[in-house]
Amino acid sequence: MTPTALRSGPIPPLTLITDEEDDVALACAARRWADPHGGRITVDPTPATVTSAFLARDILAALGRTAYAPIHAPVITAQPAWRAVACWIIVDDIRQLTVLRAHLLTPERTEQLCVLRELTGIHLILMSSGATANDSARLTTHLAKAHLGGEVEYLDEAAALRLFTGPAAPRPKLPHPARQRPPTTRSTVSAPAHGVPPPTRSAPGLSSQRRAGLLAARTWLTRQCWAASPALPDQRDVKLFLSRLTTLSPTPEHTAARLQGARDGFSAAGLHLSTPADLAADSGPGISTVPFTAQVAHHISRAAPGPPQVAALAALLCTGAAVDRLVHATVDDVHPDGSHLALPEPFNSEHDQDHPPPRVWYAIPPRARPYLHAARLFRQLEDAPGHFHLFSKSFGHRLDTLVKDAGRPIPALDHPHPGPAWHHQARLLRP
Q1: pTM
Q2: Per-residue pLDDT averaged across 229-257, rounded?
Q3: Which residue range is the domain that position 395 belongs to?
Q4: What is the pLDDT of residues 366-391, one digit of tens each?
Q5: Which of 77, 144, 365, 378 could be disulfide-bonded to 307 (CB atoms 3.0-4.6 Å)?
Q6: How far apart are CA 54 and CA 142, in angstroms?
Q7: What is the distance between the alpha carbons of residues 271 and 192, in angstroms, rounded to a whole number?
Q8: Is residue 203 domain-resident?
Q9: Cα 53 to Cα 82, 92, 109, 380, distances in angstroms
Q10: For residue range 106-120, what is the model confidence (pLDDT) as tens digits?
Q11: Which helix (H) or strand (E) segment is 363 a member of?
Q12: Helix, strand, coil share of the chain (percent; to 5)
């Protein structure tokens, strides 16, 4: 891994705990102290292992990402495993890592932990339980070779027990700047257009979906300053809005209701939203996708330890795009915060290798954004250029094993659609 810091701010000094008596209460307190949701994990290295790959997998298991080996997919190797550890620590906002039996660390493992500390800025705690004088001297030598001899804070057993039983320090909260609402004239947006037919009665249970689409269209037009600009909004922004509106839709019927409400909202502003007549025959958000819930995120995050593989599963579930389009997604195609993903549409007679088709933006729901963000960080740790494939080593024969480990139905694979997504065919026009 290239030691380029992924998290800004000062790095806490390394804490070294010496427990010559091998107190069981101290080890139990360190394990109870672990709380991934609170930013703390405790790792007990697998016995009788010396290579750094096993320690990286132990940390992944402590992060709740995967067991030592997936059922169908191949076991992750050392360097990808350490890059995955760094990505998940950043994405999950882990601030403290405690390693038990640290006196058994090899020089390679010590070096990898030190590099991980430089990358993530994590507070690294090494606890030597039952270590002899020679074991402690050997660990000190390893730390000195890793240039950490002067950055070590020593704690005895009593101080360590207070550390693991005292109140946890709160994690720093990121600032949320206030969103500035653009000035608009409400009458222009909400005024009914001449000749717009009265809204029809919706099916039971879908009226709320239709109203949500109506309010979303009005809000979007307000943010686009439609009242102050006579020009039509950018069609790329229109497609991104439609994707964001429908990506969490549970059924195609709900998608159609939301689009009908959005169509009513645009009509009230004097605009016409054109969409394919038969949505069920197309693919895209709300048609060949499933709502990305906490349960779905839990399942796929444990399907594979590698961030690109987990992100590939999330993209399949959230975009509904075909595999031949996702395989061409690059590092630059994902937004830095994982909120948007650009994919190329299918080739047709108007495009060739010299004139590729335009890329279409897909909105990524909030629960799936950390996985796209982690995949982007993973490629950055590889020093991959912007045109490098984001989901490399995730498709082909590897996709079958990923789907088996995920154990989730993926509509884009069960019912593939070779044509363009429905929101790519949508247009916002004047009547």
Answers
A1: 0.84
A2: 90
A3: 294-414
A4: 999 999 999 999 999 999 999 999 99
A5: 378
A6: 19
A7: 11
A8: no
A9: 8, 21, 9, 20
A10: 999 999 999 999 999
A11: strand 359-363
A12: 45, 10, 45
We report the CATH number of the domain holding residue 41 as 3.40.50.300
Domain final position from 141, 165, 189: 165
Q: Would 73 be classed as within a structural domain?
A: yes
Handedness of CA 314, 320, 326, 332 (dihedral sign): negative
Residue 52 in any domain: the answer is: yes
21-49 pLDDT, tens per residue? 778 889 899 999 999 999 999 999 998 88
Are 157 and 299 in the same domain? no
Q: Please, are residues 337 and 363 in contact by the beta-carbon 8 Å criterion?
A: no
CA 101 to chain centre: 32
Q: Domain ends where: 108, 131, 165?
A: 165
CA distance 353 to 356: 6
| Dist. CA 412–CA 278, nearest whole Å | 17
Q: How far apart are CA 424 and CA 117, in angstroms?
A: 44
Write b or e for each residue in 209-246: b if 16 or more Cβ atoms lie within 10 A of its Cβ, otherwise e.
Answer: bbbbbbebbbebbbebebbeeeeebeeeebbbbbbbbb
Asked if 26 and 164 touch (Cβ cutoff 8 Å), the reply is: yes
How many domains are there within the chain? 2
Structure-token pair, residue 335? 């937004």
Tokens of 245: 């509106």
At residue 163, φ and ψ (nearest 5 deg) are -65, -40
Q: Mention every residue, 6+ apart, whose C-beta is less than 8 A from residue 57.
A: 46, 66, 68, 69, 75, 76, 81, 305
Q: pLDDT tens-digit profile of 176-229?
A: 444 444 443 333 333 333 333 344 444 556 899 999 999 999 999 988 877 666
Q: What would the two tokens of residue 343 be?
A: 């994919």
Tell me the average pLDDT of the chain: 84
